[in-house]
Amino acid sequence: MPKRQTKTLLFIFFAVLIAGCAWLAFQPGGFAVSGVPRPRGAWEFMRVALYVTALTLAYMITYSAVEADSPSLLIALAVARAGENGLPPDEITRLLDDNALVTPRLADLLKDKMAALEDGRYIATPKGRLFARIFIFHRAVLGAGKGG
Amino acid sequence: MARFLFPLVALFANAALTALVFRLRLRPLLKAVYIGFLAGLPVLFTLELAAGGFSWNCAADSITYGALSYCHFHFVNLGETARRIRLLRELYENPAGLSRGELLSRYNAREIVSLRLARLEGNGQLVLKNGRYVSGAPAVIAMARILDFMKRALLKRSTGGN
To answer: How many CA atoms lie within 13 A of A131 on its CB side?
Structure first.
């Protein structure tokens, strides 16, 4: 597995998009079998690009959701595995501690260069500050709290 | 207007209505997102009809709109529940940085679990019986199992495991 999987997947998807558009631009006929017309002109290629980009982003988001362990799903699975007896709240809190829930996400921030560790202190990088600003703005538009 | 912009216009309508419905506290966030998605569909189809009716392009634009709306749903969800975003926000609000201890005093596993238990109980996905949580609605369990299956297939590991 590559170290930065998201970046690698994005590279593959957009390379396929560029190669596909180049092939469509230079091949003379349409899709004879399916009857789908070949895109003509810059606007139609923009539509193809938007279509592929939207599906690529949807795939990437699903991949990220699969990659990380969602606490809600961890809780749901733990409770389901406990069967009819269920689990007391304290047991759930014991199973999911800071090492399980916070440490891996901090490591992700460092790996994705959104935060840096300097003299034992975590500091948001310019990329991390940009991401934070986007979400702070969106949460302000929604009139919502910090989230988490 | 260039036709390829139609799904983006519908997405804008979707996001604007989601924000409005939630901001006015007419519905909870998840329902506001569903309402926004449904509201974007007539916007898309009206534009398609005005531009000459339904065609292959309309089918492609509908798929594009669906995929963009799915991304919008996850974007909203990231702001609401993502631990990384919350940690980033704490760091953003403290430009001098935070030690691990300082970070954990602001956001920690106890808070994360407590927020999620409240959400899962509020949605009926968990039920508290005699001081113990048991499964409620099966949807979240099904979702957990699907993601666990995908994790095993794609990443060769299970949920919560290595």
So the answer is: 22
> What residues of A are in contact with residue B6 (Cβ under 8 Å)?
none
Within 10 angstroms of residue B98's Cβ, the number of other Cβ atoms is 21
Burial state string for B27-56 with b = 16 or more CB within 10 A and e = fewer than 16: eebeebbebbbebbbebbbebbeeeeeeee
Using an 8 Å CB-CB cutoff, list chain B residues near A44: 4
Cβ contacts of B64 on chain A, cutoff 8 Å: 47, 50-51, 54-55
Minimum CA–CA partner of B130 in chain A: A88
Facing residues of A117 across strands? A122
A54, A70, A106 ranked by CB distance to B64: nearest: A54
Give the chain A residue nearest B125 (alpha carbons).
A76
Whether the pLDDT of residue B120 is over 80: the answer is yes
**The pLDDT value given to residue B57:** 83
Q: Which amino acid is at B112?
A: I
Q: Give dist(CA A101, CA A80) in Å, integer.
A: 19
CB contact burial A63-78 (16+ within 10 A = b; e otherwise): ebbbebbbbbbbbbbb
What pLDDT is stored for residue A56 in this prediction? 95
Ordered DSSP codes for A51-63: HHHHHHHHHHHHH
Q: How far apart are CA B80 and CA B119, in angstroms?
A: 11
Confidence of residue A7 (pLDDT cuts 50, 70, 90): confident
B59 versus A67: which is more confidently predicted? B59
Q: What is the pLDDT of residues A74-124, one digit of tens each?
A: 898 889 889 889 999 999 999 999 999 999 999 999 998 999 999 999 999
